[in-house]
From TrEMBL:
Residues 41-418 form the RCC1-like domain. PANTHER family: REGULATOR OF CHROMOSOME CONDENSATION (PTHR45982:SF1). This is RCC1-like domain-containing protein. The lineage of its organism: Eukaryota, Metazoa, Ecdysozoa, Arthropoda, Hexapoda. RCC repeats lie at residues 39-89, 90-142, 143-194, 195-264, 266-317, 318-370, 371-422. GO terms for cellular component: cytoplasm. It comes from Pyrocoelia pectoralis. Keywords: Guanine-nucleotide releasing factor, Repeat. Pfam families: WD40_RLD (PF25390). It comes from the Eukaryota. The keyword Transcription does not apply. GO terms for molecular function: guanyl-nucleotide exchange factor activity.
Length: 433
């Protein structure tokens, strides 16, 4: 087993319309429409700790390879060094690094247990999954939330609860019906049926939206009797100005960022790391308070995905935008582009109807209505067959993608996972070509 890598957390305004009273919102808890379609799972990139699910003999794939599963899969999530799959029957499968409990199951019973998919024991059918660097989460059909693994900060292992790591599913958000969950690298976001947003985990870049900069560290001084680590790890509602009286109906989490959409409006409130303007706020510093992003509020979004220093967003017309840092080509705006300080349409995709987008740490992906996958950014986990960076969206081709239509992509730390419908169900051919 390779030693688990330790990721460095080092990181180099406006107002909203006021409402006369708190908006009443009840968001229906139902199976997300995106889970209706099922398909097969394909993976590419690093697999040294089992995150590809291809067995202990395959430690890397430069092109997409098929994972041999007995289940129909409706959703996938790539974590830092692990992968989650959601089956059509609402079961969760995991594989990859389990040093800190991210798989949520026993992996000491056999030598290759981390390298092959295994089921997580949960009490009810699951309708949504999310994964961070070292944690995983599941939203159950009845609105309960279970989470396992750990969060990390600048000092190392932060724990998942004040008791430390949780190697098996642990229920949080008691007394709330949750309708959506999202994971950053080391923080977790929940949206309740009443339109409230709760966060927990690492707060050092402002991603919890409820701590001051001074109070964001585990070493911060708290008031008498206040457990600082418990304050960070216990899910709590984000801090809003009382005069705003806001409710939300959608959430998204980037590596160190959080986005929340106001119910029945296009307004997007943001908080977290903004050193490359990836939140759409003009000041290049961490945003610890919840603030309206005028740039993100100017459009109606289907999906927002954040990498380490950039954000990719998909509007409801299928148009793809990028903002943030340019290095390694992660913006898809060409080799000669500058860092983007405002949401910019990606030219190579402007004539294509995109249905899904995703960011890895320094990679970006888009899936078109025709089932094609485009990738750009740091070479390695792109699936091109080469290690070179891609500065514009590049169509991914391989033998395994013939006769397959991709409909979902998820980027991890150094690997990528896709879901595809297929007329070629050969579950043993992992030949690269």
């Amino acid at each position: 087993m390779s030693t688990k890598r330790r990721r460095s957390n080092s990181v180099k305004e406006s107002s909203a319309p006021k409402l006369s009273k708190k908006t009443k919102v009840v968001i229906e808890h139902a199976v997300p429409s995106g889970l209706i379609k099922s398909g097969v799972v394909l993976v590419t990139g690093a697999g040294d700790v089992g995150q590809l699910g291809l067995g202990s003999d395959i430690l890397e794939k430069s092109r997409f390879a098929l994972v041999n599963l007995e289940h129909e899969i409706v959703d996938v999530c790539a974590g830092g060094m692990h992968t989650m799959c959601l089956t059509k029957m609402g079961r969760v499968l995991t594989f990859g690094c389990n040093d800190e409990g991210a798989l949520g199951r026993v992996t000491t019973d056999r030598e290759d247990a981390e390298f092959t998919p295994g089921e997580v024991e949960l009490p009810e059918e699951v309708v949504q999954i999310s994964a961070g660097d070292s944690h995983s989460a599941a939203l159950l059909k009845d609105g309960r939330v279970f989470i396992w693994g750990t969060f990390r900060d600048l000092h190392g292992n932060l724990g998942l609860t004040p008791n430390g790591n949780e190697k098996f599913p642990y229920e949080i958000m008691h007394d709330h019906v949750v309708v959506k969950i999202a994971s950053g690298a080391d923080h977790f976001v929940s949206l309740t049926s009443h339109g409230d947003v709760y966060t927990c985990g690492c707060a050092e870049q402002g991603q919890l939206g409820r701590t001051s900069e001074r109070g964001s560290s585990r070493t911060a001084r708290s008031g008498a009797g206040v457990d600082q680590i418990g304050k960070l790890l216990h899910p709590s509602i984000i801090t809003l100005k009382p005069t705003l009286k806001l409710r939300f109906d959608d959430i998204w989490a980037g590596t160190y960022t959080t986005f929340a959409k106001v119910a029945r409006r296009n307004d997007i409130f943001v908080f977290g790391l903004n050193n490359y303007i990836q939140l759409g706020l003009p000041s290049a510093k961490p945003q610890f308070s919840v603030k309206l992003s005028k740039d993100f509020s100017s459009r109606k979004w289907k999906l927002i995905s954040g990498g380490q220093h950039h954000t990719i967003a998909l509007d409801e017309d299928g148009v793809t935008y990028a903002i943030g840092r340019k290095e390694y080509g992660r913006l898809g705006l060409g080799n000669e582009c500058n860092d983007s300080e405002e949401l910019t349409v990606i030219p190579a995709l402007k004539d294509k109807k995109v249905i899904n987008v995703c960011c890895g740490s320094a990679t970006s992906f888009a899936v078109t209505e025709q089932g094609e996958l485009y990738a750009w950014g740091m070479g390695g986990p792109l699936g091109t067959g080469e290690d070179e960076d891609c500065f514009v969206p590049t169509l991914i081709k391989s033998k395994q993608l013939i006769d397959r239509q991709i409909f979902k992509v998820s980027g991890g730390g150094q690997h990528t996972v896709i879901l595809a419908t297929t007329t070629n169900n050969n579950k043993t051919d992992n030949i690269e070509s």
